[in-house]
Amino acid sequence: MTMTLAERLVTIGMVILGTVTTRFLPFLLFPPSRPTPQYIRYLGKVLPSAALGFLVVYCFKNVSLLTGNHGIPELTATAVVIALHLWKRQMLLSIAGGTVVYMLLVQYVF
Amino acid sequence: MSQKKIKKALSAAFPYTVPIFAGFLFLGIAYGIYMNTSGFSALYPFGMSATIFAGSMEFVAVNLLLGAFDPLRAFALTLIVNARHLFYGISMLDRYNGTGRKKGYLIFGMCDESFSINCSATIPPDVDKGWFMFFVTLLNHLYWVCGATLGGILGPFVRFDTKGISFVMTALFIVIFLEQWLKEKRHQSAMLGLGVTALCLVIFGGQNFVIPSMLGILVCLSLLKKSLVPEGEEV
Hints:
The structure holds two protein chains of two kinds.
Chain A: H1 5-29, H2 38-58, H3 72-88, H4 91-109
Helix pairs in contact in A: 3-4
Chain B: H1 3-37, H2 43-51, H3 55-66, H4 71-81, H5 84-92, H6 102-108, H7 112-120, H8 129-154, H9 167-183, H10 188-204, H11 210-223, H12 225-228
Helix pairs in contact in B: 1-2, 1-3, 1-8, 1-9, 2-8, 6-8, 7-8, 7-9, 10-11
């Protein structure tokens, strides 16, 4: 370990500062006391759906379709989650079902 | 603020966080063990999970701590890894308003999981919105800190074979995305989020796709402004 305690604390502090910056910046730029620009209000309305779509793909960032198991466990479990959810519309059931299928696939099949 | 109101919000919020309980506990333990085997005492995963509260960045931070001292690089890297929070913030500008003193904590604790629940959950009209979102955030925060600390303490003593449990987070986001999809009238924005990000992931690879995806989504949404909000409709 090359860093001193003080250096480690500063490094952790920078990570905290960076995270807090990304979370607070929009709220500081567009406080409720001033009217929010129309363009930002538009984004606030349409961004949530896009951000959720982004987040779904973000989860697959380490999946390779061309090598290894070709993402078959991920794609299968995703199909299970969607099918279960459209069928029963029970959030916990869909999540648990898909996760169990995924765990079985990566532990016993692939 | 009556205690009954707070209790009601807690019991409304808790079921939404159950999958995160499972995911965060196991991921947190994995993170704590990783820190422990990298030579850090349990105080580190405890302190870092409580103050940073951004899962993927905390894993990255372990490498930062093991490398050469470079605070500016640590800051810049954090901004890049966590840039997606900017989207969450813009999405939550209205929803976090009017939550009083809880607002600061709601923003501080806006991780992927808290954001996705708070932005999509249909909160019953008799439940206080601010307290509901507060408890979603707080419970997630607690699960994560407990997992990380536990992993840090147990460290090398445990054999950890829950391979694949992290899919619980992916499943959560898929379900939330589906619920949002079933609720909304127009799907262009949701499809853009999926499509642009997937395209950027293929083109730029898993290490570099986040910023291009965000820019791509912004450009597309800006170009589609006219068709997404038809004339006469309130923004």
